Amino acid sequence: MRKAGANGAGMREAAVAAVAAELEDAGGKAAGAGAAAAAPALSPLSETLWRDRAGLALLDGDVSARLAWRDLTVTVALGSSGDTQAVLQGLTGHAEPGTITALMGPSGSGKSTLLDALAGRLAANAFLSGTVLLNGRKANLSFGAAAYVTQDDTLIGTLTVRETISYSARLRLPDNMPREEKQALVEGTIVEMGLQDCADTVIGNWHLRGISGGEKRRVSIALEILMRPRLLFLDEPTSGLDSASAFFVTQTLRGLARDGRTVIASVHQPSSEVFELFDSLYLLSGGKTVYFGKASEACEFFAQAGFPCPPLRNPSDHFLRCVNSDFDKVKATLKGSMKTKFERTDDPLERITTSEAMRRLISYYQHSQYYINAQQKVDEMARVKGTVLNAGGSQASFAMQTYTLTKRSFSNMSRDFGYYWLRLIIYIVVTICIGTIYLNVGTGYSSILARGACASFIFGFVTFMSIGGFPSFVEDMKVFQRERLNGHYGVLPFVISNTLSAMPFLILITFASGTLCYLMVRLHPGFMHYLFFVLCLYASVTVVESLMMAIASMIPNFLMGIIIGAGIQGIFMLVSGFFRLPHDIPKPFWRYPMSYISFHYWALQGQYQNDLKGLMFNNQDDELPKIPGDYILENVFQINVNRSKWLDLSVLFSMIIIYRLLFFIMIKISEDVTPWVRGYIARRRVQNRRQRRAELAAVRSPSLRGYVVDAAILTADHP
Ligand SMILES: Nc1ncnc2c1ncn2[C@@H]1O[C@H](COP(=O)(O)OP(=O)(O)OP(=O)(O)O)[C@@H](O)[C@H]1O
After folding, report:
1. CATH 3.40.50.300 fits 95-122+134-383, yes or no
2. What broad class describes the main subcellular location of this protein (predicted)?
3. Distance of CA 434 to the CA centre of its chain
4. Burial readout 278-317 (b: 16 or more C-beta within 10 A, e: otherwise)
5. Out of 80, 298, 512, 689, which residue is the most buried by the measure of CB atoms under 10 Å away?
6. Which residues share a beta bridge with 68?
């Protein structure tokens, strides 16, 4: 592969050949029933790339992931009442290398919660008890130790499939890995996921038609298998796909599993063909185990429990039919409305309710050999202490992550029409409107107020329009959150790259519209005055962008974010010194500190000075002496002329840094502090609720006892 890397085509062919050999190998293993499970060796491609290149050469022995969980219980705190709900109750099971385990169950049965509990991604209000062991040791899977493919395909719509995977490779593979090898790994992954035909097609967004839903799913999986993780979690990888795409995706997952990986996927309603591809089945209902064992033996289990799968019925449909208590409600509704008659059949499910069937199946499982086998296997897995697999996440340096993210973000911004290009057009249009309204404003008496109003509109409303970028920021944040949770890169490279990639566009927008405005309105002549004006506009727009990014990191809902952003800017505008003169703004709160926090205030103060200082204005009457700009600044606009306008500009630039720092801090807070606080509040509420209940019980019990004693006395007195 190293030799083939010399030219692109040869490299791709080499990658294709390597993967083909790998898949052939996997196919061969799959052919021998259970052979892969017994011998979960890595294929040559994965072995070399994962072990040597992912910096794991020091690991000795088996690098496969054996996951076991015992008595896993998850309780969630509901709302502010302190009520709790047991979402998972005492689950025990295991997943082994070389196998694919399907988590199945009706909607709300706890599949995603089990997946999250195993992957260490539970919500802050969810409390876990029991043990999760990875290779016999307590698992620590947060931030990238295991790959997790979420239900939504949060991808960058403007990039092609190949670019998406290539950027991801550069973000995570070690810097010293030769470029050709990285590219070979990318091409190999494309082949492995069957994405060759759409490799150069864009993912697609609101204005770009892109790849299909099934292909998007496969791209999401490709991104996570790039680093050859030993453990792969997938939340509903086949949801929303047609049967052919679902079969393809599951077949690919089976191939990955046969390559020595441990694959666990929650699945909704698999077709019979898809179901046959699973090695193990974990069937849940109401958070309890209905069945855990080989998928191929599930039919036998159901038959033994008294619920045989009727001929011509898809086994997975039958299992789900037996454990979905919603069928009781549906039947009751249909019977009530006389819309249907239920004929007598041999199907036991027609004779008893589904809730009863569920109860019997759960009880049968708990006394079955399947349960005993699972317990024994978990005990055995807990005894064998294997390799510590916590080497997930990025192997790339900080500089490489920052560079790659900047490049990727810049490509996205330049290709997405809605990100900056649309804004550039709107800015130019609005600037032409301003330019024509204040055209050649001059130095007449009326132009004093016109200049003030023009500056106020530019630094108030024009900068406000930057809020339009918020939906794009929210999309960026979604991609960041997915990648961050999987440990693809750090927070700082993201913040820096976001700042750097936006810079050329903001310079273009503000300099183009600023120049147009300056020339049309004929603001104070002179290059330094022009430079100050456009720099001030650039700084103000960048501050708004930074503010909106900080909001997007906390509030990822674009409607709410826009409302909050607009509210904050409205307040800042109000204290900028135009709508109410600085000395007249009420001192407590509005002047100190609000007007000083408002970037509009600094921008206006600077621009007023930049525009008026040094000019002479006509008086009301032409015979009266001209009015110097300095006098107007001090007496009309209440500006401190002794403060340099450059100081105002430097405050604005400092604000950019402060808001970017705020953006970084907010991400860190929402990552580390918010879950902790939410968890703490949820725990306190649950504790308070329990305490209240205990107190109530203590108050009630004596009266009850008293009632019993009184009744006994009465009976004795009156036999
Ligand atoms: N953090 C949480 N807070 C409150 N309730 C939760 C939380 N997590 C899960 N639940 C509840 O637990 C139950 C199981 O949810 P889960 O998402 O695991 O089910 P599921 O089987 O994956 O469902 P679906 O197939 O519809 O995605 C649901 O009733 C859900 O509302």
Report:
1. yes
2. membrane
3. 40
4. bbbbbbbbbbbbbbbbbbbebeebbeebebbbeeeebbbe
5. 298
6. 94, 133
The distance in angstroms from the start CA to the end CA of the chain is: 99
Q: How many helices, marked H, and strands, marked E, lie in the chain?
A: 27, 14
DSSP label at residue 465 = G
Residue nearest to atom 25 of ligand 1 (CA): 107
What pLDDT was estimated at residue 1? 33
Let me know: does 192 contact 159? Beta carbons within 8 Å.
no
Distance set, CA 547 to CA 302, 317, 539, 553, 554 (Å): 58, 50, 12, 10, 11
> Among 582, 598, 695, which Cα is nearest to 637's?
582
- Model pLDDT, residue 454: 95
Q: In what order do the strands lie in the sheet with 137-138?
A: 83-95, 67-78, 126-134, 137-138
Complex-level ipTM beyond the 0.95 threshold: yes
How remote is the CA of residue 203 from the centroid of ligand 1, in Å?
30
| Shortest-distance Cα residue to atom 29 of ligand 1 | 108
Distance CA 521, CA 458 (A): 12
Q: Are the beta carbons of 62 and 382 closer than 8 angstroms?
A: no
112 in contact with ligand 1, CB cutoff 6 A: yes
Q: Is the CB of 111 under 6 A from ligand 1?
A: yes
| Ligand 1 pocket mutation, candidates 112, 233, 264, criterion most atoms within 8 A of CB | 112
pLDDT of residue 24: 43
> CB under 8 Å to 555, separation ≥6 — which residues?
561, 564
**272 C-alpha to ligand 1 centroid (Å):** 26
Q: Do the strands 616-617 and 627-628 form a parallel or antiparallel pair, or are they unpaired? A: antiparallel
Secondary structure E strands in 518-676: 588-589, 592-593, 616-617, 627-628
pLDDT at residue 706, as a whole number: 52
Are 489 and 483 a contacting pair, CB within 8 Å? yes
Residue ranges per structural domain of the chain: 95-122+134-383, 399-674
Give Cα separations from 591 to 545, 582, 615 (angstroms).
24, 7, 29
Helix (H, G, I), strand (E, B), or coil: what is residue 339?
Answer: coil
What pairing do the DSSP bridges indicate for beta strands 588-589 and 592-593? parallel
Residues 6+ apart with CB under 8 A from 407: 167, 501
48, 49, 51, 53 alpha-carbon torsion, rounded to 10° = 120
Q: For residue 418, count CB atoms less than 10 angstroms from its CB and return exposed for 0-12, middle for 13-18, buried for 19 or more.
A: middle
Is residue 108 within 6 Å of ligand 1 at its C-beta? yes
List of the chain residues with pLDDT < 50: 1-60, 143, 713-714, 716-719
Residue 105 CA, closest ligand 1 atom number: 21
Would you tell me how many other CB atoms lie within 10 Å of the CB of residue 445?
A: 15
User: Would you put residue 592 in left (φ > 0), alpha (ψ -120 to 50) or beta?
Assistant: beta
Residues 6+ apart with CB under 8 A from 309: 299, 302, 303, 315, 318, 319
- Kindly report the backbone phi and psi dihedral angles of residue 424, in degrees, each rounded to the nearest multiple of 5, phi listed first: -60, -45
DSSP 474-517: HHHHHHHHHHHHTTSS-HHHHHHHHHHHHHHHHHHHHHHHHHHH
CA distance 407 to 658: 24
Report the pLDDT value the prediction gives residue 336, as an integer from 0 to 100: 62
For residue 202, what is the DSSP state? B
